[in-house]
């Protein structure tokens, strides 16, 4: 799960990570009130920041500095409600519904910090780079040596010596090193205790008066751990998610929308991945990833159909099921019922194997509906690709 920058900063502040003073605003009036308050408290400027679940906001015009209240109000007028396009939003952009208004910082250097779960070592890795404020993916691709890494032993935590190594690698001044050690350890503690899968501070800044701040903050959480963080779960903003994905999550369906024309309904994440691959291999393109899970009910299958069909790009449906816990006859009953209830018009191709497969095939055959069944996964993929091409 992703959250907004302002929410990430609230969490980090609780762990003692220094962040600039600021507040979120949902309306121009609220934004003006926050700016007024910050100036009254002595801020020399404020920064107006679009809150969307995507990076690259600065380049897209979603982060603007103001020297006085008038300027701040002009930026608010422009940014609030705009369709902000960044390299992470796609060409359609994302509507800005919230702003973070913060006191400006006197930036000396812009650096990078990140903590990410490294699946190859099974440990959290702390990353730091002097190439902050820019796209870290580009730095990683072109100059990977510019990113310093410390792998963290979960039994010990981030050692002070490791934090000092990172501080030296960043070229911090001796007067900043102790602050940096405390900063990095707080960041690590926040990552660990919130079950975050990624924490990124870009830029991590030093100021002209030698202070350190998280000027930007991004946190992604492990969805499988959200059950033990009710407070974090409450931070979810469905406005930032794909509406079909939100709908799917209501029925515990693992659905991710893609750009292709062939809808997939599959049980098991591994089989779903293989299905997307074989569609590509057969010359088609998947419209989604969908794992209905091991024990899908007829109701879930109907909802899955509704979601697949709400995607206007879908030209054919590929149902690829290996009946284990989910018995094939039960699935076939669900598919037939859904196809009748929803009056499905797009061609459906199935590949079925596993428990009660013969009963399942019989149910499909006797339904009177027009399903194609592939004998193998490859044949079914070829059939569905051909069906999608014909439908165009
Ligand atoms: P992102 O583009 O979505 O990653 O948004 P950031 O929060 O990282 O902001 C982008 C850039 O805006 C930063 O790298 C800074 O250069 C600039 N910026 C953000 N806040 C301030 C501020 O308080 N003062 C100044 N001078 N620049 C800022
Ligand atoms: Mn940033």
Automatic annotation (TrEMBL):
Instruction: Give one GO term, molecular function aspect.
Output: magnesium ion binding
Query: Which parts pass through the membrane?
Result: none
- Give the binding site residues for Mg(2+): 202, 216
Tell me yes or no: is Metal-binding among this UniProt entry's keywords.
Answer: yes
What EC class is this? ligase
Quick one: which pathway?
A: Carbohydrate metabolism; tricarboxylic acid cycle; succinate from succinyl-CoA (ligase route): step 1/1
For the ligand (ATP), the binding residues are: 49, 56-58, 102, 105, 110
Q: Please give the cofactor(s) recorded in the UniProt entry for this protein.
A: Mg(2+)
Q: Which GO terms describe its biological process?
A: succinyl-CoA metabolic process; tricarboxylic acid cycle
The ATP-grasp domain covers which part of the protein? Answer: 9-230
Q: GO terms for CC?
A: cytosol; succinate-CoA ligase complex
What Enzyme Commission number does this protein have? 6.2.1.5
Q: Where does substrate bind?
A: 267, 324-326
- The reply to whether Zinc figures as a keyword in the UniProt entry is no
Instruction: List the keywords (alphabetical).
Output: ATP-binding, Ligase, Magnesium, Metal-binding, Nucleotide-binding, Tricarboxylic acid cycle
Reaction(s) catalysed (UniProt annotation) = GTP + succinate + CoA = succinyl-CoA + GDP + phosphate; succinate + ATP + CoA = succinyl-CoA + ADP + phosphate
> What is written in the cofactor note of this entry?
Binds 1 Mg(2+) ion per subunit.
Role played = Succinyl-CoA synthetase functions in the citric acid cycle (TCA), coupling the hydrolysis of succinyl-CoA to the synthesis of either ATP or GTP and thus represents the only step of substrate-level phosphorylation in the TCA. The beta subunit provides nucleotide specificity of the enzyme and binds the substrate succinate, while the binding sites for coenzyme A and phosphate are found in the alpha subunit.
Family designation: Belongs to the succinate/malate CoA ligase beta subunit family.
What the entry lists under NCBIfam families is as follows: PRK00696.1 (NF001913), sucCoAbeta (TIGR01016)
Q: Subunit structure of this entry?
A: Heterotetramer of two alpha and two beta subunits.
What is the name of this protein? Succinate--CoA ligase [ADP-forming] subunit beta
Q: Which gene encodes it?
A: sucC
């Amino acid at each position: 799960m992703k959250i907004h920058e302002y929410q990430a900063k609230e969490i980090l502040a609780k762990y003692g990570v220094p962040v600039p003073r600021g507040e979120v605003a949902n309306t121009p009036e609220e934004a003006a009130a926050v700016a007024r308050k910050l100036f009254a408290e002595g801020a020399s400027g404020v920064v107006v920041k679009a809150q969307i679940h995507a990076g690259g906001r600065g380049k897209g015009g979603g982060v603007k500095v103001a020297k006085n209240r008038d300027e701040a109000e002009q930026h608010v007028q422009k940014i609030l409600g705009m369709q902000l396009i960044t390299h992470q939003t796609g060409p359609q952009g994302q509507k800005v519904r919230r702003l973070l208004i913060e006191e400006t910082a006197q930036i000396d250097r812009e650096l990078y910090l990140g903590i990410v779960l490294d699946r190859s070592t099974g440990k959290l890795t702390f990353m730091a780079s002097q190439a902050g404020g820019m796209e870290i993916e580009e730095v990683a691709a072109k100059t990977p040596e510019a990113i310093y890494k410390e792998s963290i032993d979960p039994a010990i935590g981030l050692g002070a010596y490791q934090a000092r190594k990172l501080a030296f690698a960043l070229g911090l001044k001796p007067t900043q090193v102790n602050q940096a050690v405390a900063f990095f350890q707080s960041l690590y503690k926040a990552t660990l205790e919130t079950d975050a899968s990624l924490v990124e501070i870009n830029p991590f800044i030093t100021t002209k008066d030698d202070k350190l701040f998280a000027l930007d903050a991004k946190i992604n959480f492990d969805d499988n751990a959200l059950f033990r963080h009710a407070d974090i779960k409450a931070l979810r903003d469905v406005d930032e998610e794909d509406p079909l994905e939100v709908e799917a999550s209501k029925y515990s369906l693992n659905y991710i929308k893609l750009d292709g024309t062939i809808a997939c309904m599959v049980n098991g994440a591994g089989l779903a991945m293989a299905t997307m691959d074989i569609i590509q291999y057969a010359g088609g393109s998947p419209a989604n990833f969908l794992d209905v899970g091991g024990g899908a009910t007829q109701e879930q299958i109907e909802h899955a159909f509704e979601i697949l069909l709400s995607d206007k790009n879908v030209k054919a449906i590929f149902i690829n099921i290996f009946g284990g816990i989910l018995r094939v006859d039960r699935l076939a009953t669900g598919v037939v019922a859904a196809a009748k209830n929803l009056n499905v018009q797009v061609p459906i191709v199935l590949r079925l194997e596993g428990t009660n497969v013969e009963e399942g095939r019989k149910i499909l055959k006797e339904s009177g509906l027009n399903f194609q069944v592939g004998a193998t996964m490859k044949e079914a993929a070829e059939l569905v690709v051909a069906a999608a091409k014909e439908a165009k």
